[in-house]
Amino acid sequence: MEPTEIFDAMPFARHVGVELTAASDGEATGHIDIEAHHSSTPATVVAHGGVSYTLADTVGGAAVISLAETPTPTVDMRIDYLAPATGDRLDASARVVRFGDSVAVVDVSVTDETDDRIAEARGVYKTGGGDGDSAWDGGDLLE
Amino acid sequence: MEPTEIFDAMPFARHVGVELTAASDGEATGHIDIEAHHSSTPATVVAHGGVSYTLADTVGGAAVISLAETPTPTVDMRIDYLAPATGDRLDASARVVRFGDSVAVVDVSVTDETDDRIAEARGVYKTGGGDGDSAWDGGDLLE
Amino acid sequence: MEPTEIFDAMPFARHVGVELTAASDGEATGHIDIEAHHSSTPATVVAHGGVSYTLADTVGGAAVISLAETPTPTVDMRIDYLAPATGDRLDASARVVRFGDSVAVVDVSVTDETDDRIAEARGVYKTGGGDGDSAWDGGDLLE
Amino acid sequence: MEPTEIFDAMPFARHVGVELTAASDGEATGHIDIEAHHSSTPATVVAHGGVSYTLADTVGGAAVISLAETPTPTVDMRIDYLAPATGDRLDASARVVRFGDSVAVVDVSVTDETDDRIAEARGVYKTGGGDGDSAWDGGDLLE
């Protein structure tokens, strides 16, 4: 199954409107057409931080899967917001910067339809050893 | 307007199903009842990382607003995933650890209905100077 | 070799003055006595952010090694500064919150001699597969 | 006083061997010549994560000061390690990606003398309202 098919079948990505457009060789792209229900305020449409994050995490994961060819759960992600998401569309472009046997590091840039930078994210994903549900299979949660 | 009312009126929080239950004195709580559309896989229900993140960012913001009494856009947030979100519900508990004139630092813990830790997040929010849409009003985006 | 011996022999930890006092069962403690050369300003003694970070990364690593019993290079770490480090001493207390086959997540709290919180850090460390120099042995650095 | 002079007078930057070479218009560069005391192991010279971090935080701060012309304490920084620092030198290049009235976001890349990427860092710095010792003057540390 191609990465784009995996993500087309991902319920939450569909619920938020993520369209994955490409994923190969450690790079991936995708976008969300912004609608009123994405807003953080009822008065005007400014996409909630969770919209940019969901797009970044999803497209970042697709970039890793294009190399790992196995489910690659997110270990952690940091997102920095650079401008209010007031446009009609959010585009994400992800690139794996380091791909290892057990984890990968990915950079994701989120822009709007005028190419203004909206957010930048950096995440670590599991590349081996998990079963797709979690980065932590086989691990212990300490009290 | 009370913080809980502000968040009830937040379109994306409603779209994802965030229920904010309390927000005062720098602390806030909220939850999401997990349904099939929150899943990252079609086969079983495991909440997507964007669900925990949206809950954490929203409840974290409510904790800051309870002190700031003004919109407080997110500057950045890091989330670490500790276990797969396979339960029926995600609960978030947020606490402001530092509240300054311009930014605040917040810790958020996400657990499931059996109190298993699912994720931990730490974020920085703007506490002054913005207009509610962004942390960056008055700032310059450098090329 | 005990974790405390490993860290006593770590040249940079000695150069910065890190004293590791305990490391077992996923927890570790250590401190630095602050001197003029730790300062970020020549006029008064306020420890540079790199001092708190070096302490946090070192004590965090010791907490992981106490469980992994193998070198555990840092994959990433985020540090949030909560107050100026104007005291005579920095104490760090680290706790592994999740220990997996390939990575672990650690929380570290840095306080001064009056128990004021100075910084909080969260890091991911490799727990398997490396040779002690890096988290990335066997991995590819993508262009 | 020029940024390079401010950093020449910074005791901890001197203790770790940071040489700041340029800082203007939101960009800065600097380096550290790696010696045995920078190592994380006694057997071979592999620079400790605190060395790359101290370089990144210092050069990142210089990039912000070049625009702010006031002390700019670090609010938070995340560093991701991409390769073991086994070379003779670490170079850092920092760029302010967003400069606001109260905070700035900075990207820092750390490479070795062969241009191999060693680490990437992203930090938030205070740009106004502090007194140089901390991002938190005027703020409350909550219990």
How many domain modules of chain A?
1
CATH domain fold name of chain A: Thiol Ester Dehydrase, Chain A
Under CATH at level 1, the class of chain A stands as Alpha Beta
| Helical fraction of chain A | 10-25%
What profile does the largest beta sheet of chain A have?
6 strands, antiparallel
Uncertain runs of chain A:
none
CATH architecture of chain A: Roll
Q: Which secondary-structure class do the elements of chain A indicate?
A: alpha+beta
Classified in CATH, the superfamily of chain A is: Hotdog Thioesterase
Mean pLDDT of chain A: 90
Number of helices of chain A: 3
How much of the polypeptide of chain A forms β-strand, as a percent range? Answer: 35-45%
Largest beta sheet: strand ordering of chain A: 1-2-4-5-6-3
Describe this structure in words.
Four copies of one chain form a homotetramer. Chain A has 143 residues and is of the alpha+beta class. The first copy, chain A, has a single domain (3-126), classed as Thiol Ester Dehydrase, Chain A (Roll), CATH 3.10.129.10. Chain A contains three helices and seven strands. Chain A has helices at residues 3-8, 11-16, 49-68, and strands at residues 19-24, 27-33, 74-81, 89-99, 103-112, 117-126, 140-141. Chain A has a six-stranded antiparallel sheet. In chain A, strand 4 and strand 5 form a beta hairpin. Chain A is globular, with a radius of gyration of 15 Å. The N and C termini of chain A lie far apart (39 Å). The model of chain A has no long low-confidence stretch (mean pLDDT 90). At the C-D interface, helix 2, helix 3 and strand 3 of C face helix 2, helix 3 and strand 3 of D.
